[in-house]
């Protein structure tokens, strides 16, 4: 008789939660997920927090949805893997969490994150489908699109109010995108206490960004050259 594999119960439970969310057609509340997979609610919350932190799930006001990291895995593209080293260098240089976003089939998705305990990622509590307008990564990608494509995207993605600083006027957002700067800024528009800076990747519907606590934003903005250099390196990686 073949030996039975040793299974890690917490991993199995987390995967069951991921399956339950992935098979749903709408956001799923934690209580419903706990019932669906047969777990106590406290255990469910603990696993959900971990999955959200790692980007496999995203939390919305209506429940949990599949996160951007799952989208990146499903895409199976090599670009995020080739770019990870660039993000690691950017993270080390600026002491900030580093990100890569990409426009994929009409949606702006988070493709890669490099962070650390000393420079953690922002709390990704809303997925990019509903929040690109409130993030520097989303703005940097939108700024590269032809006007017709940009207007089409904004027409199909409501400008949800995430914080008191979120820009919810299409006219105001368009003016910001057309401002001419190659550095997009999210000044506490996605998450209070956090500033994100991003720049487009040359000749690609992608963007590189870093996030820092609000008090560090001026110092990081003064070193925006590192962000631009990282974007150029990602572009070169894409051609490798």
From TrEMBL:
TM annotation in the entry: none
Domain HTH iclR-type: 8-68
Pfam families: HTH_IclR, IclR_C
Alphabetized GO MF terms: DNA binding; DNA-binding transcription factor activity
Keyword RNA-binding: no
Coiled-coil spans in chain: none
Keywords of the record: DNA-binding, Transcription, Transcription regulation
Name listed for the protein in its UniProt record: IclR family transcriptional regulator
């Amino acid at each position: 008789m073949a030996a039975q594999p040793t299974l890690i119960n917490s991993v199995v439970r987390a995967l069951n939660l991921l399956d339950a969310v992935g098979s749903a057609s709408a956001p799923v509340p934690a209580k419903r997920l706990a019932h669906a997979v047969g777990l106590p609610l406290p255990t469910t919350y603990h696993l959900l927090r971990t999955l959200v932190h790692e980007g496999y799930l995203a939390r919305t006001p209506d429940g949990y949805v599949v996160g951007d990291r799952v989208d990146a895995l499903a895409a199976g593209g090599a670009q995020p893997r080739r770019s990870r080293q660039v993000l690691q260098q950017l993270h080390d240089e600026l002491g900030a969490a580093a990100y890569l976003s990409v426009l994929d089939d009409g949606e702006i998705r988070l493709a890669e994150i490099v962070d650390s305990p000393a420079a953690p990622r922002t709390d990704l509590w809303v997925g990019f489908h509903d929040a690109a307008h409130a993030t520097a990564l989303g703005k940097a990608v939108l700024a590269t699109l032809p006007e017709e494509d940009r207007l089409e995207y904004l027409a199909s993605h409501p400008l949800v109010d995430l914080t008191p600083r979120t820009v919810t006027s299409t006219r105001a957002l368009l003016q910001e995108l057309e401002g001419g700067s190659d550095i997009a800024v999210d000044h506490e528009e996605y998450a209070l206490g956090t500033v994100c800076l991003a720049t487009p990747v040359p000749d690609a519907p992608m963007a590189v960004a870093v996030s820092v606590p609000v008090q560090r934003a001026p110092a990081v903005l003064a070193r925006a050259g590192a962000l631009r250099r990282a974007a150029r390196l990602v572009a070169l990686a894409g051609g490798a």
